[in-house]
AsnC family transcriptional regulator
Amino acid sequence: MIALDDLDRQILFALARDATLSAGELGRRLGLSQPATWRRIRRLEDSGAIRGRRLRLNAEALGFGVTVFLGIKLGRRGQGRFADFERAVSAIPEVQTVEHVLGLYDFRLRIVARDLPDFERLLRRRIMTLPGAGDVEANVLLSEERLPGPLGA
C-alpha cells in the first residue's frame, strides 16, 4: 500500500473526475509544476494506485437503453465449472462486467441491452445455455449516480 499525501489525493480525485487532464493542466490547478505533477502521477501508476485510464461509453446513446445486474448461481460445482462459465460469459459483447462473488450467487454480471425483450432473448439464448448456468436473479437499473472522488468514479 502506498502512503498518500494531500496532493496525491487531489491528483487522484481530479483524474477520477476527468482522466484526460494533462500533467500541465493538473499542475496548474494544484499549484505544481508540470514535471512535479507528472512524477507524482507516474509514482501513483507504478505503485498500482492508478491502474490505467479508461474510456466510458454512454450505453444509452449507443442504443442500449437497459442495464441489468444479473446474479447467477452455477448449477454444478467445481473449479473447472467456474472457469468455463467465466470464459464463456466474458465472450458475450453485451456483458460489461463479470464478478465472481461470495454469497447467494456465484457471479454478478452487468449487462446492457437495447430493451427488455432484447435482454430476455439474450438471457434465454445466450446466458442460460452457458456451461453450468443455474438459478438467476435480474435487477434492472433505474438510475445511477457517480460518486465524486477516486473510489466512486
Q: What stands out?
A: Residues 34-47 form the longest helix (14 residues). The chain has two domains: 7-47, 66-140. The longest strand covers residues 66-74. The domain at 7-47 is CATH 1.10.10.10 (Arc Repressor Mutant, subunit A).
